[in-house]
Specification:
globular, alpha/beta, Rossmann fold, 12 strands, six-stranded parallel beta sheet
């Protein structure tokens, strides 16, 4: 499988991956998160696990289960870590812990390295296997959330779990916290060979547009994201309405539900109400694993947005850039790591700013083409899945070898 990336991913990454695969051959690498569908974490793991296995590593992916109340609580924790004022009571924290305790009884947590993703399964560290070789197994906590300005009391409570790990991994340097454990910065990535990112034929793109009754003869403004207030879908509609006064265009807001996000349906209904039955606003609730449709929508778009007001990373930015699209994104979280302002796209703070940049693109196709070319090359160099796997294995190597760099191999 790794050979399929030859000529696509940087050659140096592939060489280093082969070497790391030899070092960790037949070792087990366990990942745990809270959902198999919806959101960037699940998508990355779906693609990453087979590549790790192809390298000779026994990679596994486990998912914790929880009741509706558990996911209501973890959504509040997520929102609080991104700066919302939420109340998490001691009893709610106990339920969070208890659900993880029950999961620990069912899950196989034995491995040579363990990577726990986000706050939902963070308490699993309390149930780490003990004794003998198990004491030397590195447990890493991976935070995919924008924690640059968290609600402090929630951050402090979660820290009591996080600091029991051997290291923490964040997407962007400004998310890192002053903790007593090692911290690493590893941005997320996209898989260029996945159904969501592979090249499509014109016929495949046409079929998707026809399926959703989207006209192909007008400029398309697109945002792909979960229906989440932090993604600012209302702000996107505001920007579209400003643009619509001057440019004939349509807007598509497309997203899939996530099993660990109980607020999604509420936000979706808010967006539908705000759109006011505008026939040129297409709100698409796509079923899970609609990767080819998302691919086709991104390739057919004239302008792609990710106008988040808080964002852990925003992989939809890299996805669109890989397809040669310059992106207009909120200047928050990991988006500025992907968009080089004025070179591969534009960063904005308001609906008015987004509307200005949308019109700039609609009225200047030459700019769109040039920025799009630079965008794809920027993603190739920095945000392909081969680089992220390289980074995870390099952290594992450094912890097992007392900080020795993989580049000393």
């Amino acid at each position: 499988m790794i050979s399929k990336y030859t000529g696509i991913a940087p050659k140096g990454d592939l060489i280093l991956l082969q070497r790391l695969g030899e070092i960790f051959r037949d070792k087990s690498f366990l990942h745990v998160n809270s959902t198999r569908a919806g959101g960037g974490v699940a998508e990355i793991l779906q693609r990453m696990i087979p590549i790790l296995q192809d390298l000779g590593i026994n990679a596994r992916w486990e998912v914790i289960e929880g009741d509706e109340r558990f996911f209501d609580i973890t959504k509040k924790i997520h929102n609080a870590l991104q700066g919302n004022h939420e109340t998490i009571t001691e009893e709610m924290w106990r339920h969070h812990y208890e659900v993880n305790r029950r999961n620990a009884e069912k899950l196989d947590l034995e491995a040579d390295a363990v990577l726990i993703h986000d706050p939902q399964p963070a308490p699993l560290i309390e149930f780490k296997p003990q004794g003998g070789e198990a004491d030397r197994v590195p447990w890493l906590w991976r935070c995919h959330i924008d924690v640059s300005n968290p609600l402090q009391e929630v951050c402090d409570y979660l820290r009591r779990y996080c600091e029991k790990y051997d290291a923490a991994v964040f997407s962007v340097s400004k998310f890192a916290r002053a903790m007593s454990i090692d911290e690493f910065i590893i941005p997320p990535s996209i898989d260029p060979l996945s159904e969501k990112n592979r090249d499509l034929t014109e016929e495949e793109i046409r079929q998707t547009l026809e399926r959703y009754d989207i006209p192909a003869d007008r400029s398309i403004i697109l945002q792909v994201s979960r229906f989440d207030r932090f993604k600012d879908p209302i702000g996107v509609i505001k920007a579209y309405r400003m643009v619509k006064k001057y440019n004939d265009c349509i807007l598509i807001l497309a997203g899939s539900p996530a099993s660990d996000d109980p607020e999604g349906e509420i936000v979706l209904n808010e967006v539908r109400e705000y759109a006011s039955n505008d026939p040129d606003v297409h709100i698409l609730l796509l079923p899970p694993f609609s990767d080819r449709d998302i691919n086709a929508l991104q390739r057919s778009a004239t302008v792609v947005l990710q106008k988040s007001i808080k964002e852990g990373f925003g992989l939809t930015v890299s996805e669109a850039m890989w397809k040669g699209k310059p992106v207009i994104g909120g200047a928050t979280g990991g988006i500025p790591l992907q968009i080089v302002h004025g070179f591969t796209g534009f960063l904005v703070h308001t609906p008015e700013g987004a509307a200005f940049r949308i019109r700039q693109f609609l009225n200047n196709p030459h700019m769109v083409e040039k920025m799009g070319q630079r965008s794809k090359e920027y993603i190739r160099t920095n945000f392909l899945i081969t680089r992220q796997i390289r980074d995870y294995l390099s952290v594992w190597y450094a912890i097992k070898n007392n900080g020795k760099s993989v580049y000393e191999l």
